[in-house]
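Troubleshooting log. The previous structure file for this entry was overwritten by mistake, so regenerating from the original sequence record. Sequence copied from the archived sheet and checked twice against the printout by T.R.
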Amino acid sequence: SLLPPPPSPLFDELVSATVSTFGAPLSLSPDLSKLEAALLAAPANLWGAYSDSVARGEVGWGLAGRLAPPGAPPPAAGPPAGDWDRTSLLICARGAGSLAGSVELRLQPPDAKIPFSFPLLDSLERSLSSFAFPAPPPPPPQPYLCNLFVLPARRGEGVARHLVRAALAVAEHAWGGFDAVYLHVDPKNKPAVGLYEGEGFGRVEEVEWRPGWEGGAGDIAYYVKRFDRDEEGD
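Regenerated output below.
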């Protein structure tokens, strides 16, 4: 199912699931003494509640800012800059009345940059990069798959593969006109790499985003799956 725009119970459920899946709550070491644990328990709980609220705010505001407005038409191929920052679709898998997983499909210039939660920050970073290292403008946006997750209780059921295939179907057929889908994946995440390569994604070697301040993000692998339009008669 496609996620309805906020506010909606499903949107709130997805924000909570995203934070719990990707988040790293603070926990006390079991090696602490009873006195140390007692002294640190309250500050740790306060910090956990604060970080959880901040994470929920960032995830919720970011998703709400990227989602396509209700009733918006599917994006055409190669939209001009500025028209693609609110085109995201969230595709959800549900079972037994609850959320099992989700994946986001959005548009991004295929320049290997890992996108921020807020599209405005992407524009600012691209502007800074072009000022510091003059280069031709990036190619027109293409579909980009991100934020794929499956709740721990539903892993091993093929939910992730189902979500990836659903996103690919939307990008290739419902949106139309585009010739590829891109994504980033940590090369150390072998299950995710295996999933994407099994669905026809291959690593992009010729494009890198290295403006000089990327840090460890520059080591995240950039992948693409190209659509074979010739076989379809397009």
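Strands lie at 89-95, 98-108, 142-150, 180-185, 202-203, 221-226. Archived copy saved in two places this time.
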